[in-house]
Write a structure and sequence with these properties.
InterPro entries: NAD(P)-bd_dom_sf, Sc_DH/Rdtase_CS, SDR_fam. The protein is α/β, with parallel strands linked by helices. It has a single domain, classed as Rossmann fold. It has a 7-stranded parallel β-sheet, sandwiched between helices.
């Protein structure tokens, strides 16, 4: 059965007043796992993966896919404890281990301490997924406050720098970093001015770190999602915008988190051993010439 058969093309009007949003309060709940997407070939057996924003959305789907492939999981998240505990339960049901770390990844000291906790718990870090993000709409540049600009960059971009700095000294040849950028890094977005800029910065950071870490045998790549049904959407846009979200893609629908997971698994696996500095676009058919 296809995704189209499991999920309505038209989304109900809804809005959440808290960022980055609560998955359990979404209607309908995003599809983060499907049996037909399971591979279970243990491509990541023995690996330790750190996933920011792993409590819900794309991060949850990636955590479950990685766990089925044999990886131990650390999920870093802000304060969505209900979502995080459910993801932990699902990861453990798959036969893997899951460490939860709650806090603000925009703080460098928190990032340092978190990586230390991962090493203390699992003894290694092999895969770093910089996935967590926040976004806030503004109708014009004059509405973009200094506080919002700094906050968005701290969460979306500075955190990736902080975590990469802390992680690389514990990583070895064959390990990898995958950054979650966005289609808006390439095309921009009228309402998400600062968010788009952070994703552009993250894309360039991916390319720079791929060059920098090549001598260490550490690969750095990115995934650029299009419109994906995650808690960030109803917590960012008004009800009318949510109802039509994703409808203008070539496939005519919003994407589901489970449809991103395999791209991350591939980039983390030996199947992508000759790929670094690249971006995989999962966006429903939008052609990005960049």
């Amino acid at each position: 059965m296809n995704i189209e058969d499991k999920f309505p093309k038209t989304l109900p009007k809804q809005h959440q007043n808290i960022q980055p949003g609560i998955e359990s309060e979404m209607n309908p709940v995003p599809i983060y796992d499907l049996p037909e997407y399971h591979n279970n070939s243990k491509r990541l057996k023995g690996k330790v993966a750190v996933i920011t924003g792993g409590d819900s959305g794309i991060g949850r789907a990636v955590a479950l896919a990685f766990a089925r492939e044999g990886a131990k999981i650390c999920i870093m998240y802000l304060n969505e404890h209900g979502d995080a505990n459910l993801t932990k339960e699902l990861v453990e049901k798959s036969g893997s281990e899951c460490l939860l770390i709650s806090g603000d990844i925009g703080c460098e000291e928190f990032c340092k301490n978190s990586i230390s906790q991962v090493i203390k718990t699992f003894g290694a870090i092999n895969i770093l997924i910089n996935n967590a993000a926040e976004q806030h709409c503004v109708n014009k540049i004059e509405e973009l406050t200094k506080e919002q600009l700094e906050r968005t960059f701290k969460t979306n971009f500075f955190s990736a720098v902080y975590l990469t700095k802390s992680a690389v000294s514990n990583m070895k040849k064959g390990d990898c970093i995958i950054n979650n950028t966005s289609v808006v890094a390439y095309k921009g977005h009228e309402l998400l001015i600062d968010y788009s800029a952070t994703k552009g910065a993250l894309t360039t950071f991916t390319r720079s770190m791929a060059i920098s870490l090549a001598k260490n045998g550490i690969r750095v790549n990115a995934v650029a999602p299009g419109p994906i049904w995650t808690p960030l959407i109803p917590s960012s846009f008004n009800e009318d915008e949510v109802a039509k979200f994703g409808a203008n893609t070539n496939l005519g629908r919003v994407g589901q988190p489970v449809e991103l997971a395999e791209a991350f698994v591939f980039l983390a696996s030996q199947g992508a051993s000759y790929i670094t500095g690249e971006v995989i676009h999962v966006n429903g058919g939008e052609i990005i010439n960049a």
